[in-house]
Specification:
about 150 residues; alpha+beta; Ubiquitin-like (UB roll); DNA polymerase, domain 1; 2 domains; five-stranded mixed sheet
Length: about 150
C-alpha cells in the first residue's frame, strides 16, 4: 500500500504493508533516530511527533500516518541540540540510546506546558525509560531548560 506523509517538512511517498508499524517504516526509510527498546509501548524510545503531538511509533500502524505530518529528531535538530547541551552541562546524559525519544518528549512538553511543576514534568515523562540514569540529573536539566524552579 502506498502512503504519503510530510516527514520533517518534506512530502514523502512510502510503500508499506497493512500490518507494518510506523517505527519500522521510518527506520527502513533511513530515519535512524527512531529506536525500539521494548516492543511493548513502555519505553518511549520510538517517540515521534504526529501532527506535533508525541506518539509511540511502535504502536501506530503506518497506514494510519497517511496524510499526516511526522516529525522526528532529524526535523528538530536545532532545538534538540539546545536541550542536549543542557543535558550534558548538567551531567545527565549517559549512553544516548534513549535520547531521541526523550528529547522529543521534552520538546513537546516545552510547547504544551507553561511553567510546569515538578509533578507535571514527571507525569509528562512517564513512559520514557532510561537504563543509565537515576532521572534526577535529567529532571534538573529539564527544569533548567524550561526555566522553572
Amino acid at each position: 500500500m502506498q502512503i504519503e506523509i510530510i516527514l520533517n517538512g518534506k512530502k514523502v511517498s512510502l510503500d508499506v504493508k497493512n500490518n507494518e508499524l510506523l517505527a519500522d517504516t521510518l527506520r527502513n526509510y533511513g530515519v535512524f533516530s527512531i529506536r525500539k527498546g521494548c516492543d511493548t509501548t513502555c519505553c518511549g524510545l520510538c517517540t515521534i511527533w504526529v501532527e506535533e503531538k508525541p506518539v509511540l511509533s511502535c504502536a501506530m500502524l503506518s497506514v494510519r500516518a497517511d496524510g499526516k505530518t511526522i516529525t522526528t529528531m532529524e526535523g528538530l535538530q536545532r532545538e534538540a541540540e539546545e536541550f542536549a547541551q543542557v543535558l550534558v552541562a548538567e551531567g545527565s546524559e549517559q549512553c544516548g540510546f534513549c535520547s531521541p525519544g526523550f528529547i522529543l518528549t521534552v520538546l513537546a512538553m516545552k510547547r504544551e506546558l507553561k511553567n510546569p511543576t515538578q509533578e507535571e514534568i514527571v507525569h509528562y515523562l512517564t513512559g520514557n525509560l532510561c537504563r543509565c540514569t537515576g532521572y534526577l540529573g535529567q529532571l534538573r536539566a529539564i527544569k533548567k531548560y524550561l526555566g522553572v524552579a
